[in-house]
Amino acid sequence: MKRFSLVLALVFAAIALASCGSGSDSDVIKIGVNYELSGQTATYGQSSVYGIELAIDEINEAGGINGKKIKLVKYDNESKPDLALSLTTRLMTQDKVVAVLGPATSGAFGSTIPLAMQYKIPVASGSATADGLLVDDNGNVKEYAFRICFNDSYQGKAMANFAINNLKKTKAVIIKDNSSDYGKGLAESFKQTFEEKGGTIVAEEAYVKNEVDFNAILTGIKGKDFDVIFIPGYYNEAGLIIKQARAMDIDVPILGADGFDSPELVNLAGEDALNDVYFSNHYSPLDESSVVVDFIESFKKKYNKEPDAFSALGYDLAYFVADGIKRAESLTGEAVKDALEATKDFEGVTGSFSIDENHDPVKALIIIELQNGKQVSTIRAGN
Amino acid sequence: MDQFIQQIINGISLGSIYALIALGYTMVYGIIKLINFAHCDVYMLGAYIGYYCMTFLHLGVVPSLLIAMILCTLLGVLIEKIAYKPLRNATRIAVLITAIGVSLFLEYGTMYFVSPQVRTFPPHIVKSMSAGIKLGNINLTFMQLMIVSVTVLLMVLLQLTVKRTRIGKAMRAVSLDVDAAELMGINVDTTISFTFALGSALAGAAGVLVGLYYNSINPLMGLLPGLKAFVAAVFGGIGIIPGAMIGGYFIGMVETFVAGYGYSMYRDAVVFAILILILIVKPAGLLGRNVREKV
């Protein structure tokens, strides 16, 4: 399957190459969209693209950028980093876009960064949170890569501080997703901060993606003395861990990060089980600022459902890049890169931020509290 | 002590699931020497059929289970007729590759139609099934009891079918020697179809039970348990029905105890290390007999 689609992509690329020289029409600005629209992480990609398309529609309806409409060139990378790589190549060399949005996951996004450096066209992601993604081994920033989300260690640190300062808990069990850098990175930074602040990690357990049975691990920790659980992982497994833990009468608070953000979490865990659950996130629908209220309203109007954090990040990402293009001196990758780098106090639905010297946004995160399966309160937290 | 008993309960229910899937692998292997990789996808489809019966037709657990078993039976026979029968006289590697192809086709075909999104069962059914007995610190849910009893019941029925009925005798004959069985007037095609039907019905049942137990189904849910069940079948001696059962329970237990006593990071490593040791000592599996190659 993989081979076949790769061959197909190559054939198409060859055809496109053959018909090269048609020239780009000058009254539109092309932005590439390379997301996970099918495959394992499809919900992240789909949600992000909902947000991106909503933002671009709004920008075009308001007259576009300096009189030019934006045209999205959208491809599905099937959640495969190798396909993401060839699609970004295609967007940069054949479609001649000024910037590429996506992919959503850190691994796939990271694989496209060398292309951005090579062709001098910026790539930007709304949700690639892995640490060190935007800097090379010598600590120099990769000039053409941007993101508008905080990184994993920031979340791990914030949750550790939250457990110690707000919840007053000092004995934690970590149950981590050992098959992703995301899970391992979060676990590492949580552990470090938690221990620095005087807490102890009673046990550190691990699982791999797609597992469904956590009874053994949970029975094992049940006999131990702990007062909080941290689950660095995604909602698929976290939902089941919470359900099975609560069924065993383990009723200590459970903490997580933005991987918990999905409407499926409540279906997987069940409403009764989702009590005293706290997770860090980029955005909360409970936010009452006018940007967020307007965003939720127009999102519902267009798609007839509630936006999640990925949609909010996609929405901000599209506006962030459009804002850069607007301020750029010319429509070249280099000029757009300079403009994006100079972004200050950008007002988005995921909070206002400026871009720092490592191309990370400087922004606060939100900690969401769940009771009976509902989001009941949010706490803005920095580090 | 409580913890130990609880871990045994956890291990038995996990092992039952592996055993139920392993039975299907082992039966098909026993009769046509084919590792039917599509088996774990029939299991996945069983879970989806159960899900649609309960969510959209509002049926109860037992009718959904039966419908899933019937539809999976038909599907299993269909897969055999379309994909494997034309290759009856082809090399084994050709059939094996076809099996992988069918598996991918089912996984990604399902993903196309139902989306890769994880699905969950209706909350009221999940709630009623996760009710259970509490003895002090020990939890035993209705669902766990059901999984274990369905597995044991189906295993016994299967063993009786194979050992005591005419069609069972035909199955054993075909597994020994296809040509000779045909010469003796056994309808080989019917017998093979019957084997696929039985295996697929079991997979369908396992799919619904597991989907309900964990309350999470997705188009790739068959991959991991399918692999473990395959290992269980090899472990017990592939082609031997009680072997699949023993293999399933053994792997369930080992996984549970390794993970339960603080070594969750090494769980799969331990399982596979034991598998390798067993296969070095007994290459045909725990219950397998070494058959000398005829030259």
Characterise the protein shown here.
The complex is a heterodimer of chains A (383) and B (295). Chain A is an alpha/beta fold and 383 residues long. Chain A folds into 2 domains: 223 residues, Rossmann fold (3-Layer(aba) Sandwich); 130 residues, Rossmann fold, CATH 3.40.50.2300. Helix content of chain A is 43%, strand content 20%. Chain A is globular, with a radius of gyration of 21 Å. Chain B is mainly α. Chain B has one domain. In chain B, a hairpin with a 2-residue loop joins β1 and β2. In chain B, α1 crosses α10. The N and C termini of chain B lie far apart (55 Å). The mean pLDDT of chain B is 88. The chains are: A alpha/beta (383), B mainly alpha (295). Chains A and B meet through β7, α7, α8 and α9 of A and α1, α4, α5 and α11 of B.
Topology as H/E string of chain B?
A: HHHHHEEHHHHHHH
Strand order of the largest sheet of chain A: 7-6-8-9-10-14-15
Taking pLDDT < 50 over at least 5 consecutive residues as the criterion, the unreliable ranges of chain B are none
CATH topology category name of the largest domain in chain A: Rossmann fold
In CATH, what is the class of the largest domain in chain A?
Answer: Alpha Beta
Overall SS class of chain A = alpha/beta
Say which CATH homologous superfamily of the largest domain in chain A is assigned. Answer: Response regulator
Domain count of chain B, please report it. 1
Q: How many structural domains of chain A?
A: 2
